[in-house]
Specification:
It contains 18 helices and no strands.
């Protein structure tokens, strides 16, 4: 009787193992299919697969990771289309999905790095800080987490940022962002020679618009805003009309005492990004600069643009108050 029971249990176990194996193979195949769709830019189709998988395999980190990346891709697309609020909602869902994924697989450094990037995009710096540090603890040879963490803590903890950046460069001396960030830290410390030397190293690896913006800020910090203007005006139009570039170009013009050119920088930024639902911010920046330059008609035009984009009433009122004060 006992031997018969053992045989029966063995048969049951033998039957269950292939079922479990087949189930996980099915999961892997469906995840792979969703990955292919996502890579092809078909986030909606990939999401349909993931919605089913979430109901069946909520205990598998790969499903939540895939869900996070779908929300992230959708968030980026919506942002590029100018739908900022919808984009933010997708990015927050990406962070939520990454929280589930990291809870299920606590020892995968790349996952934590990706999660940190999503958190930065969603504006959750505290969560990004935690995830980047987790990634560093899991893989001390990956240059990405310390680089991203350095950029995250740059303003609030420059000493730690410098330490992280130097660590990155010790692992890979060709990381332009690390050299450029150190250049800016040196400029803030007032060491012009060290700042320019570090920027030279950055430009050896990357001469793109993002590095040029940092270079312009470095020169402005060193008291040479004219050099910053030259650098950014030499950048092609698309590169200098991003929010980051326009902000730095406007700041350089302000430092030179040319608010009229600062207003032009923001006007150009608004023109290039008028499709964004938050483009009213650029219009109001232009309005403030126009007012500082004494150009009330230019300010009125920019205020009207902001109003058409449903700028918050308090923001409009503040700029109108500035205009009214000038008219008295």
């Amino acid at each position: 009787m006992a031997s018969a029971l053992i045989v029966a249990l063995s048969l049951i176990a033998a039957c269950e193992e292939p079922v479990e194996h087949e189930t996980r193979v099915d999961l892997t195949n469906r995840v792979d299919r969703a990955e292919q769709l996502l890579s092809a830019g078909k986030a909606v189709e990939a999401g349909a697969i993931v919605d089913i998988l979430l109901g069946q395999y909520s205990d598998d980190w790969r499903v939540h990771d895939l869900a996070a990346r779908i929300h992230l891709q959708q968030g980026i697309r919506l942002r590029d289309d100018g739908l900022i609020e919808q984009s933010q909602a997708e990015l927050l869902q990406a962070v939520s999905a990454y929280q589930k994924a990291t809870a299920l697989v606590p020892a995968l450094a790349g996952l934590y790095t990706s999660a940190g990037n999503a958190a930065v995009m969603a504006g959750d710096k505290q969560q990004a800080n935690v995830w980047y540090r987790d990634a560093i603890g899991l893989d001390a040879e990956d240059v990405r987490p310390p680089l991203y963490l350095a950029q995250l803590v740059f303003d609030e903890n420059p000493a730690e940022a410098r330490e992280l950046l130097e660590w990155v460069i010790s692992m890979d001396s060709n990381i332009a962002e690390a050299h450029a960030s150190i250049a800016l830290l040196n400029a803030i410390d007032g060491d012009a020679e060290a700042a320019k030397a570090a920027m030279f190293e950055a430009l050896r690896s990357d001469r793109g618009p993002a590095i040029r913006v940092v270079q312009a800020r470095m020169f402005r910090t060193l008291g040479e805003p004219g050099r910053g203007v030259e650098i950014l005006l030499a950048t092609e139009y698309h590169g200098r009309t991003t929010e980051a570039a326009a902000s730095e170009l406007a700041a350089c013009w302000e430092a030179i005492g040319r608010p009229d050119r600062s207003a032009q920088a923001w006007d150009d930024c608004f023109g290039a990004n008028a499709h964004r639902t938050d483009a009213w911010r650029f219009a109001l920046n232009a309005a403030r600069a126009h007012l500082e330059a004494g150009d009330r008609s230019g300010a009125a035009r920019s205020i009207g643009q902001a109003e058409m984009l449903s700028a918050p009433a308090d923001e409009l009122a503040a700029v109108r108050a500035l205009a009214a004060g000038q008219g008295e």
